[in-house]
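I hope you will forgive my troubling you with a question about protein structure. The full record is reproduced below for your convenience:

——
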Amino acid sequence: MLLIADVWTMTEVGRAQAVYLEGDRIADVGLEHDLSARYPRAKKSRFERITPGLHDAHTHPLGWGEQLERLDLSGVHDPREVARRVAERARSLPPGTWIRGAGYLFDHYPHRSILDELVPDHPVFVRSRDLHSGWANTRALELAGVSRDSADPEGGAIVRDGVGEPTGYLLETAQGYIQRILPPGTVADLERGLRDLARRGYTATHHMGWCPLEYAEELARSGRLPLRLWWAMDKDNWQGVKPGWRGDSLEVAAVKFFADGALGSRTAWMIEPYPDGTHGIVLDPLEFIREQGEAVLRAGFGVVTHAIGTQAVRGLLEVYEQLAPLVSPARPLRMEHAQHVRDEELPRFKGLPLALSMQPIHALEDADLVRHHLPGKEHEAFRLRDLWNTGLPLAFGSDAPVALPDVLAGIQASLHNPLNPTQSLNEAETLWAFTRGAALAAGWLEHGLIRPDAPADLTLWEGGKPVGRVFRGEVELG
């Protein structure tokens, strides 16, 4: 098969005009005239642009599959509007049915009475866009056994009123009170999430937790994985698991830790306090990450750590400096998000065996939150250009279901940084981070390139957007 387009190879060749495929590999790359003469009987297809297959370098595909079936609260900032939408959903459901959703962003922690007023007979649990906090009504708290006597769990907090009663708002691990009584996600949810990513033109995604490995292994065994899946284990269940490939589509590669929470929930761990005097929440202590990280690396896994706030980033750099001698090229350290970085920390990134996994799409909604929660610190957020200049590979993604896995929105946010235009990247750099940079972050050295003998995983573009893909040498359109 001969594909003709403006071919962005992500190699030293730069741009080409045609790609010839044989089976599931790229056989030849070059000028249209040369390849047409070399392969005169090949079936030809034309496209506007071809890139290496897109990766979403940070997703929770089980959660994304679940969210596709739930109440979408994206873009909602008023708690009363959330309650109204929940009440609208409740009218079509029998009393006692759980109502779940996610996607809102609030600038304060609302009270359960707002939900109770409109939805008294259905247990409700809706989560913030970043998934680091959740809001429950009284019925849900009662079912979960949450009262004024309930203790704050390690790494979380039950928000309380002036007399110590739970307000219904739960931060970080305190959400576990509700989650432990909810039905778990299923293999079907995971498959739904992965198929949606494939439909959007992605050929790979990097799983970042909150799903049993057995679900992915079942899909791999039955040949139902619709893209290549790089898998990070949760920190609580990696022991006894063997790293490596399950077939040729699923690699169990790393273990994930959390240094802090997220900006939208005011749980990102900051050096300077938020306006209310708090500094965020530490989830996994740095010494725990160092000790466990050493064990993880010696077991053949990579180390992945979520770090959003300035203190989380600073502390994690110290940990990674200590872990660096144990790192192999196939398992680079990863810092997920790196969203708020002080000037003082920038020189410390250079030279580390580290990939930076970032989500430009988050800047579209977080820009106002940065201005609200961190006035005067806008220059520390979403430093794409400064981090690109460290020479470390950047890997871009969405964090779905935290944000839509919309590559065009991610590209636009990278091209036009809404907080600081000088931190924008150009188109070639942005697409590199969605392809080759993401492959390097995964340790997949032969991926993210268009060159002979590379896997035939490509994304096909028309009208400036993905319209299909080549996966394992097979063209999929629409």
In short: The longest strand covers residues 44-52.
